[in-house]
Amino acid sequence: MPRTRAELAATDMLQDTIAAISTPIGESGLAVVRLSGADALKIADACFRPVGATSKRPTEAQTHTVHYGKMQRAGKIIDEVLLTILRAPRTFTREDMVEASCHGGVLPAKLVLDALLEAGARLAEPGEFTKRAFLNGRIDLAQAEAVADLIHSRTELALDAANEQLAGKLSRRIEDLRNQMVQTLAHIEAHIDFPDEDIAPDTKEKLVQRLESGVTFMDELLATANEGQILRRGIRAAIIGRPNAGKSSLLNQLLGHERAIVSPIPGTTRDTIEETANIRGIPVIFVDTAGIRESSDTIEAEGIRRSRESLARAELVLEVIDASESLSSDSRLGATNGKKHLVVLNKIDLPAKADVPTAHRISCTTGEGLETLKDAIRDAVWSGKVGGEMNQVMINARHQEALQRARRHTQHTIEALRSNQTLELAAMDLRIATNAIGEIVGKTTTEDILDSVFSQFCIGK
Ligand SMILES: Nc1nc2c(ncn2[C@@H]2O[C@H](COP(=O)(O)OP(=O)(O)OP(=O)(O)O)[C@@H](O)[C@H]2O)c(=O)[nH]1
Ligand SMILES: [Mg+2]
């Protein structure tokens, strides 16, 4: 049953004061332990002893101030910390918050956390701080997702897109669309309440037009799904070819460091090697594979089996051919099942014995042709449709599913109005469509949707 954000906020989700270590576990200079909730200041009070003339107890401290002191647990000093006091509502969660910067390392942060838990806090679930920012109305659901995208982004382009979404670029468009639909729905429902007055034909036509422009807008948003997916997940590109063609050399060139072993002995690479590179802003997961040939060596044969598996899983294939060797009947890869497929002719610095007219000509030794190849990789996966109005709005899989559902039901509404079916029918479909649009920003949502969104986060965010 979809519920509004306010309804969800009224459940017991926001009762506890939550705590978590917000920095990665491991040795580091500093670690930050976060606390959020109605009792945050009181709980911090129980563990913190201020040191120095200007430091205050958390409950007496002004908002947005920093205090130096010792953290205590069972009467014993466990660490010296800087405590940042943030009083509601100008905080990330809109609740009272305390951030303790303690010494890095696994133990100090863990002991500070334990002290806070013993004083009455509960360990936060993954993404629970961001979930509270959503439930308390500071950000909407699409913006909360952008926080996760921001953390996970692997290229600047992905980071820019996440920042735009966090700033509300997608949310504003979705809100506008939803408002239009709500108005249309209200109009139709008004006529259901007064059955004597049927909608005048020209008014009806105006409603249909408004819904149709809504569908066009949904299509524009849907067209960004592919790019959105690529930026968030990256794209898998398998480097495939005969032994010694220069596949590992190409991987190293694309990564900019010597990741894979390169040698003149055919059959050097046995296992597949995966590594992500930033190609013109797009995260590309390159997979270097064992050269494909007939082999009686069982280890090499297993490597070749894995090469074929990588080929099957890849979205883009880079077929590497050695230009200094004559082509034979088994030099070429053959059909790749409609996958995006770039042919790369390597070793063009050597006397040529093979030629493939459509190939991208490169030399991993001199670096020639590599920049052009990177452009070609980008062009193969990036449609270039994103730009202009939709610039930097890139929807994710959840938005895509909701938009498709909304589109379908909006179409039903249009058909119902056009064919003069009952207005109840038209209104019902439009209500479903409006709710689906509302799901994107979390206007209408379910606990399942929230769980699946926030489970993508780490603990402490
Ligand atoms: N002259 C020249 N030699 C190259 C070039 N690219 C690679 N090589 C050489 O070709 C040999 C094979 O290179 P690798 O990158 O190991 O080839 P591979 O396709 O990974 O080979 P396998 O792992 O055995 O399948 C090495 O001696 C490289 O130095 C090139 O552009 N020009
Ligand atoms: Mg190799």
Taking Cα atoms only, what radius of gyration do you get, to the nearest Å? 29 Å
End-to-end separation:
27 Å
Helix-strand makeup class: alpha/beta
How many E-type strands? Answer: 15
Order of helices and strands: EHEEHEEEEHEHHHHHHEHEEHEEEHHHEH
Structure ligands: guanosine-5'-triphosphate, magnesium ion
Chain-averaged pLDDT: 92
Ranges where pLDDT stays below 50 over 5 or more residues in a row are: none
Q: Any idea what the shape is? A: flat
State the share of residues found in helices, binned by percent: 40-55%
**Main beta sheet:** 7 strands, mixed
Approximate strand percentage? 15-25%
For the largest sheet, list the strands in their spatial order.
4-5-6-7-3-2-8
Tally of DSSP helical segments? 15
Write a structural description.
It is a single chain. This protein has a seven-stranded mixed beta sheet, with helices on one face. Strands 10-11-9-12-13-14 form a six-stranded mixed beta sheet, with helices on both faces. Strands 1-15 form a two-stranded antiparallel sheet. Helices cover 43% and strands 18% of the residues. The protein has helices at 5-9, 40-47, 106-118, 128-135, 141-152, 156-166, 169-193, 201-222, 225-233, 247-255, 298-313, 370-381, 397-418, 423-441, 447-454, and strands spanning 3-4, 18-21, 30-36, 48-50, 65-73, 76-86, 97-103, 122-123, 235-241, 273-279, 282-288, 316-322, 340-346, 360-361, 444-445. It contains 15 helices and 15 strands. The two termini are 27 Å apart. It is α/β, with parallel strands linked by helices. The longest helix has 25 residues, at 169-193. Guanosine-5'-triphosphate binds next to helix 10.
